[in-house]
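Worked Example 4.2. Consider the chain below.
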Amino acid sequence: MMSTTLFDLAFLSSRPCEGIYRKGLLAHKMVVQATWVDPSIATLQRDDKRGRNFPILRCLIIGILFALSSIPLHAQLISPGDLSTVHTNLEGVNNCTQCHQLGQVGISNDKCLSCHTPIASRLEEEKGYHATIADQNCGDCHKDHFGLDFDVLRFQPETFDHDLSGFDLVGAHTTIECRSCHQPEFITSADVRTFKSAHDALEKTWLGVSAQCSYCHSSDNIHGTQFVDQDCGTCHGESEWEGIPDFDHAATSFPLTGRHQAVSCEGCHTPYEDQPDIIHFADLPAQTCASCHTDVHQGALDPNCGTCHNTDGWDLFTADFPTEAFDHSLTGFDLVGRHAEVTCSSCHAKPAPQTTDIQITYASASLESTFPDPVSDQCISCHTDSFHGGVFEDAPGGATCNNCHTEQGWSPATYDLARHNEETSFALTGAHLVAPCFTCHQTENPPELVFHFEDQRCESCHTGANPHGDQFQQDNGQVSCATCHGTNSWSMDGTFDHADTRFALIGKHATASCDGCHPVNETSSGLAIQQFTDIPLDCASCHQQDAPHEQQFEGQTCDSCHDSQSFFIETFDHNTTRFSLDGAHEGVACGSCHGAEQNPQGIEFIRYKPLGMECQDCHGDLENNNPR
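Applying the procedure from the previous section yields the following structure tokens:
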């Protein structure tokens, strides 16, 4: 806007005033012409052009100028108005040249900058907002003489283009309050601090704030002095201070691979012990795994974890994993006995071994491991029970293999005779004590183990050794071997009393062998069955082969003459027959009268009857001199 003074208004309004105007012309040129025209004056100027009200103002101006014409020139200067508060020290006609150059219109930039040295230094360095203004005339933007309360700066933060300052606002910086950064404590320019402090305006200025992140973010700097020589932008962006999305850990001496990529920064970068507000980032001792990870091997293996492990997970092993040197006890499952002989793949193969005898299940959390972790709470976690058929579910101690077996091998079992007698309903006695377990607990065809017996009678096991067939079967169909036999042997060891049968053994019968009376007969199936029942009780049924009588005593029993002590008749009373022995006959031998004969088959027998009762039947024809 064209600057206009009161003298100009007087000159333009009246010719008679021309002389007076010329007299004050010098003073007119010395007035600050860079100031704004007061609105009221502008109004008057417009009113003058319309031909209204100006005569009064014209006379007033003429009177004032006329009065001034009689005093010295410097006293004729007229101030357009009071200076603002910041410039009150320049009030008075003696100080006009502090800002105005004689003979020049408006404000002198040089005079402004001679006082505002921080701006001058920035213009010289071509930095900051003022260096971007093409026509660097201070008076174009910064007016004064409008009163004490007038804002010379006239700065409006909400419309200010911060990019012109040389510091572009991007990211999170676009949303923060201006004074969040423009605070006295963040002013690093020494000249600004000196100048503004001298004028008690350090809290009002917008100058001097450092563009370095560390000055504004000193309160939330968790690095301390670790990165003093590095730009924050190396890791941080302006969109987010906490996160560092553009940071490339591979550029450090410790690239993140495998599961390290998923670990939070706080997992490795913890506060210093003596500086809890500072996080340890630089010079971390992270070149060996043991720097962060506890050595579960307690120094027993190579301290270089990478020999066995990789960063994809502790449970993922390299091809060089030394299985033969690995201490399996560290897993909580010691390999002893037969377990020490198996290969790793026997338990840790992929997929899990599933055979007739082995059924392994892996813990779900370890499925991706090189050596998945078998669920091994009990032996049956891996070993199928294909032998016992679940018969030990109710056994003392439960159905656990180590009740009877050890890791040295499935056999021999630790289950002994004492436990068999205490824990089962079948106590072992006699020959059962020395019988191998499989003789009772294993079938032949097919060969299967049997541990539960519904029937514990002897014949349930000894069917193949039963020589009796069904001779002793009771009415209920069962047979009780114990009636005759004991567990010491099959031989009747004195427990059987033949007198309990229908045929007591007395005399010679007591010493006869069982086979003498109980023959062995072969059945049509080839099974040898010894006959014990349905044996005739008469003597002839057994002694037929040595019967000397050839049916001479039909209808009579043997015990009519004989007893069981001997076949010889020791007490036979011949007088009970039809031929009493008396006289010389008493001493005659039996064979003298009872001679031997042969039957038609040529079998010899003794003739007992019929015999002649007459003397000549034995002694011949004595009268004819023909004796026998």
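The first strand starts at residue 309 and ends at 310. The radius of gyration is 69 Å. Compare this with Example 4.1 before moving on.
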